[in-house]
Design brief:
The complex is a heterodimer of chains A (381) and B (471). Chain A is mainly beta. Chain A is 11% helix and 43% strand. In chain A, strand 23 and strand 24 form a beta hairpin. Chain B has 471 residues and is mainly α. The radius of gyration of chain B is 36 Å and the shape is elongated. Classes of the chains: A mainly beta (381), B mainly alpha (471).
C-alpha cells in the first residue's frame, strides 16, 4: 500500500497513534478500524513481516532437508541386498498352520505372547476383557505374566490382573491407566509391570506409571494418528519407535520425550513398526503395500520388501529370532515371509479368510501367531 | 530390494491417498490393462451358449494366465488368490454365480463398469437394495430369479419398510420401464454388473464383506461425512441414519512458526549426527544374523524338536531347567548383554564375580535396572537406598566411579528419579564388559559349562565307565 490520496470520511484522533488526522475507515475481518494512513501502512508492513518470517523459515527448513539428504546419500555406498549376495541362500521353509484358535465371535484385532512362550492374549472387535466399547485395538501381556493391558475406542488403556479362578470378576479389578483424547492404537509394558507405553489416534505416545495412573512422559511430533509402537530390545535401552498415518516412523528417547530420529519414505500410513533383534534397525508395514527396513546407524532406509503381485496394504510385521526372516501380514489375507538381507520373498502363508491384523513371533522364536478379521488366530511353525 | 517392480509414478493426489484408494487405484490399473486386448490383455468375446449369446466375457483361465504373466507370479495359486480378491472387491465377476471368486478354468467372467467401482465411495442404502430386489421379481426372466438368501432379504426388507413399500414398488416399476428401453445385449451386461455391485455391498452369507473398513482409517475417507448417493437416483431422504461412529476428525493444522522452528532445530541435530556407511551397517546386520541363525527355530532345526510341530514339549522343559545347554551357554559369550539377558547367565556371572569379591558392580547394575521398573512412588526412596549401598561415603558395596560421573550422580540425587543413575550405570557396564566379563569367559567355570565338562557327563568319562563295565 502506498501513500495514495484518499477521500477522508472522518477526521479525528487515530485509534493507533492518537494524532488528529484524516482517518481511513477500514474493516479488518469484521472489526471497524479508524487509523491514520501512516498507521495503516505500518500495520500492513508488520503483517508482511510476520508472513515473511514464516516463509523464510520454511525456506531454511527446505534447504536443510536438501543438505541432509545429500549428506546421507554420500554414505549410501552400496545396497544391502547386494552385500548380502554372498550370504547363503535359505533352504525352503516348511511352515504350516499348527493350531487354529477359534474363541472370538468377531474380528481379532490384536494379540500378544506371554513371556512363558505358550500363552497369548488377544483382543477383538467385540469384547476383549469386558470393556465397555466395541473395538479393542491394543493389548499386551505384562512381563510377569500376571496382568494384561488393553484399550481402544474408549480412549483409555486399562490393566487387568489375571487369575486362574474362572469365577473371579476381573472387570471389577480393572485399573484405568492411560487416558488419551482419541483411540488407543497400541500399548506395551516397558520391561516391568509398572510402566505402560501407549500410542494413540490423538497423534501422541505416552508413558504411564501403572500404579498411580500418572503420566510420566508424553511424546509429541507425529502430525497424524500414531498406529503402532515398539520398544527397543536392549536391556539398557531407553528408546522406542512409533509409526503413524503421517507416513513417518519416529525414534524417541523415553527419558526426555525427545524425537531422536525420523524416517519418511512410505507412501501411505505406517500400520506397524518392529525392531530388528539387535536394536540397530527396525521394519515397518504400510498401506502402500510395502514393508521397509531402516538402519538407525546409517539413518536411512536400507531395504524395501515389495512385489508387483502384492498390492494390498501390510498391517503387521515381526522378525524371527535371528532377524533373518521378516513375517508380514497383509490385507489380502496372506502372510509373506521375506529374507531380510536379500530382500526376496521366501514363503507365502495362506489360510486366513480375511485380513491379517497382527503377526507376532513367540518369545523363544519357535512359532508365529497371526490374528485375523476371520475371527481366528493361527499358530504357524 | 524390489522384485521385478517398475517405478511407479510418485505423484499422489492428496485426495486420493487414503489407504483404500491406493489399493483401488492399483486394482483399477490392473483391470484396465487386462481389458486392453491390443496391449496383451485377455480375449473378451461374445460366447454362444445354447440358444443365446453371452456378450463381453473372458475365461477365468485366461485371467489367471494374464495375472501370472504380467505381475510376475510363479504360483497359479497365488494368481487365483489375487484374482479372487479383485473379484471380491467387485472389479470382475462370474456371470453365473453370486460368490465373487476367480476359478482357473473355463468359468466366464465379466468386468465391472467404472460407474460401480468401489472407488466411487458407494454406500448404498437398504431402500436402494429393496428397489433392486423388487424389480428383479417383476421381470419374468430365469436369470433374474432371486437366490434363497435374496428372497429372505427381500422378505425382511418388506417388513422393515412396510409403510413405504408402495413408494419402493413404484420406484422398482420405474426402473423396470427404463431397463426395458435398452438393447438386449446391453441389458444382459448391465443387469450382471448391477448384480455384481450388490454382491459386494450385500454379500452372500458366509462371504467376506470387503466394504468393511478399518475403523482407525474411517474418518479420512474421501467421503467422510458419508454423503449417500442413491444408486437409483432417489433424493436423500432425511430419515437416513446418522453415522454412528462419531470420531472427531483432526483438522489439518497448518504448520506454525514454532513448528517450523522445531523442525529446523531437529534437522540441525540430524546434520551433526555421525552416521555409518551402508556397507558397514550391512556387514554388522549380516554378522548379527549369522551369529544367531543357529538359535532361530525357523531357520535351524531345534534340538529337541519344536514343540509346536511335534507336540513334544521337551524343548521347553530343557529351557526352563537349571542346567543350561551348551548352545545356550555359547550365547553368553556373544556379548555381556546376552549373558545378562539369560537368568542362568546372570546367575553364573554373579557367582563368578562373588568368587572374585567384585560383585558390587553387577549388583549395582541390577539394582539400577530394578529402580527403573518400580512404581513412581517408590522411586525416590529406592534411589536413596542405592546411593547409600553403593556410592555414599563408607558404602558397604562401594563401586568405583570416575569423579565426573560421581559428581553428576550426586547432583541427580538431589531430585531423585528413575534415571538418576544412568551415567553411573553406563560407566559400570563398560567397566564390566572390558574387565570382569572378559575374565568370566576365560574362567574355568564358564569353560566347563561351555564344553559340558561336568563329572561323568563328558564323552571320555562315559567311555571309561563303559570300558570298566565291560572288562
Amino acid at each position: 500500500m502506498c501513500d495514495q490520496t484518499f477521500v477522508a470520511a472522518t477526521f479525528g484522533p487515530c485509534e493507533s497513534c492518537d494524532k488528529a488526522s484524516p482517518l481511513m475507515n477500514i474493516y479488518i475481518k469484521t472489526e471497524a478500524i479508524n487509523y491514520c494512513s501512516f498507521c495503516v501502512e505500518k500495520m500492513a508492513c508488520q503483517g508482511l513481516q510476520a508472513g515473511e518470517s514464516l516463509a523464510s523459515l520454511k525456506r531454511e527448513s527446505e534447504s536443510l532437508k536438501k543438505k541432509l539428504d545429500e549428506e546421507r546419500n554420500k554414505l549410501n555406498d552400496v545396497e544391502l541386498n547386494k552385500v548380502a549376495e554372498k550370504v547363503e541362500v535359505l533352504s525352503a521353509l516348511a511352515i504350516k498352520t499348527r493350531r487354529v484358535l477359534k474363541g472370538h465371535n468377531n474380528k481379532v484385532l490384536n494379540m500378544d505372547w506371554c513371556k512363558d512362550k505358550r500363552r497369548m492374549v488377544s483382543s477383538s472387535q467385540e469384547h476383549g476383557v469386558s470393556l465397555p466399547c466395541t473395538w479393542v485395538m491394543a493389548c499386551a501381556y505384562a512381563p510377569s505374566g500376571c496382568a494384561v493391558a488393553c484399550g481402544g475406542l474408549d480412549n483409555r488403556c486399562s490393566v487387568f490382573p489375571l487369575s486362574m479362578d474362572p469365577n473371579e470378576n476381573l472387570a471389577a479389578k480393572r485399573k484405568a491407566v492411560a487416558m488419551h483424547t482419541n483411540y488407543v492404537s497400541g500399548c506395551t509394558f516397558t520391561n516391568s509391570d509398572m510402566q505402560l507405553l501407549t500410542s494413540s489416534g490423538d497423534g501422541t505416545c505416552a508413558l504411564w506409571d501403572v500404579e498411580s495412573g500418572q503420566l510420566l512422559q508424553s511424546f509429541h511430533g507425529h502430525t497424524a494418528d500414531v498406529l503402532s509402537l515398539d520398544l527397543a530390545p536392549s536391556e539398557t535401552g531407553n528408546t522406542f519407535v512409533s509409526g503413524g498415518c503421517d507416513k513417518k516412523a519416529n525414534v524417541w528417547d523415553m527419558r526426555s520425550g525427545q524425537n531422536i530420529q525420523s524416517f519418511e519414505s512410505h507412501q501411505s500410513d505406517i500400520n506397524c513398526v518392529k525392531y530388528y533383534p539387535s536394536g540397530d534397525a527396525f521394519a515397518s508395514a504400510s498401506d502402500d503395500g510395502t514393508c521397509r527396513f531402516y538402519d538407525l546407524r546409517a539413518d536411512r532406509e536400507v531395504a524395501v520388501y515389495e512385489k508387483d503381485s502384492v498390492i494390498f496394504g501390510a498391517s503387521s510385521v515381526d522378525f524371527s529370532l535371528s532377524g533373518r526372516l521378516l513375517f508380514a501380514g497383509y490385507n489380502d489375507y496372506t502372510i509373506n515371509v521375506w529374507d531380510v538381507l536379500k530382500g526376496s520373498r521366501v514363503a507365502a502363508l495362506f489360510g486366513h479368510e480375511n485380513r491379517i491384523s497382527r503377526v507376532r513371533v513367540s518369545p523363544d522364536g519357535t512359532a508365529l501367531c497371526s490374528a485375523s478379521w476371520d475371527n481366528t488366530l493361527r499358530v504357524w511353525a | 530390494m524390489a522384485e521385478g517392480s517398475k517405478k511407479r509414478a510418485e505423484v499422489i493426489d492428496p485426495d486420493e491417498d487414503s489407504p483404500n484408494m491406493i489399493v483401488y487405484r492399483k486394482i483399477e490399473d490392473i483391470v484396465t490393462r487386462i481389458q486392453d486386448e491390443k496391449a496383451g490383455g485377455v480375449a473378451i468375446r461374445t460366447v454362444k451358449s445354447f440358444l443365446s449369446k453371452i456378450p463381453s466375457v473372458a475365461s477365468g483361465a485366461d485371467i489367471v494366465q494374464w495375472l501370472m504373466k504380467n505381475l510376475s507370479i510363479e504360483d497359479p495359486a497365488e494368481a487365483i488368490h489375487l484374482g479372487s480378491l479383485i473379484a471380491a472387491h467387485g472389479y470382475i465377476f462370474p456371470i453365473y454365480d453370486h460368490v465373487l471368486m476367480l476359478k482357473d478354468d473355463g468359468t466366464l467372467y465379466r468386468f465391472q463398469s467404472p460407474y460401480f467401482w468401489p472407488s466411487n465411495c458407494w454406500e448404498p442404502e437398504n431402500t436402494d437394495y429393496a428397489i433392486y430386489l423388487c424389480k428383479r421379481t417383476m421381470q419374468n426372466k430365469a436369470r433374474l430369479e432371486l437366490a434363497d438368501y435374496e428372497a429372505e432379504n427381500l422378505a425382511r426388507l418388506q417388513r422393515a419398510f412396510a409403510r413405504k413399500w408402495e413408494f419402493i414398488f413404484m420406484q422398482a416399476e420405474a426402473q423396470v420401464k427404463i431397463d426395458r428401453k435398452k438393447d438386449k445385449a446391453e441389458r444382459k451386461i448391465l443387469d450382471s454388473q448391477e448384480r455384481a455391485f450388490w454382491d459386494v455391498h450385500r454379500p452372500v452369507p458366509g462371504c467376506v464383506n470387503t466394504t468393511e473398513m478399518d475403523i482407525r482409517k474411517c474418518r479420512r475417507e474421501k467421503n467422510p461425512h458419508r454423503v449417500k448417493k442413491s444408486v437409483y437416483g432417489l433424493p436423500d431422504d432425511n430419515h437416513s441414519q446418522p453415522n454412528p461412529i462419531h470420531m472427531s476428525s483432526q483438522p489439518a493444522r497448518k504448520p506454525t512458526k514454532e513448528d517450523v522452528q522445531k523442525e529446523i532445530t531437529f534437522l540441525n541435530i540430524q546434520l551433526d549426527r555421525h552416521c555409518l556407511k551402508v556397507s558397514k551397517v550391512a556387514d554388522s546386520l549380516m554378522g548379527y544374523t549369522e551369529q544367531f541363525m543357529d538359535y532361530d527355530p525357523f531357520v535351524s532345526p531345534t534340538e529337541p524338536s519344536n514343540p509346536w510341530v511335534s507336540d513334544d514339549s521337551s524343548f521347553w522343559d530343557l529351557e526352563a531347567s537349571r542346567d543350561p545347554s551348551q548352545q545356550r551357554v555359547k550365547k553368553w559369550g556373544f556379548s555381556l548383554e546376552e549373558a545378562l539377558k539369560d537368568t542362568a547367565g546372570r546367575e553364573q556371572f554373579l557367582r563368578f564375580l562373588e568368587s572374585e569379591f567384585s560383585s558390587e558392580n553387577l549388583r549395582f547394575w541390577l539394582a539400577v535396572q530394578d529402580l527403573k521398573r518400580r512404581p513412581l512412588q517408590e522411586v525416590a526412596s529406592r534411589a536413596q537406598e542405592i546411593w547409600q549401598e553403593f556410592l555414599a561415603e563408607g558404602a558397604p558395596s562401594s563401586i568405583n566411579l570416575d569423579s565426573h560421573s560421581y559428581e553428576r550422580t550426586s547432583h541427580n540425587l538431589k531430585d531423585p528419579g528413575r534415571y538418576s543413575f544412568e551415567d553411573a550405570q553406563e560407566h559400570i557396564f563398560t567397566l564390566m564388559k572390558s574387565d570382569s566379563y572378559a575374565r568370566f569367559l576365560r574362567s574355568n567355570v564358564y569353560q566347563d559349562l561351555l564344553f559340558a565338562r561336568k563329572k561323568g557327563k563328558s564323552l571320555t568319562g562315559k567311555r571309561l565307565t563303559g570300558l570298566m563295565q565291560s572288562s
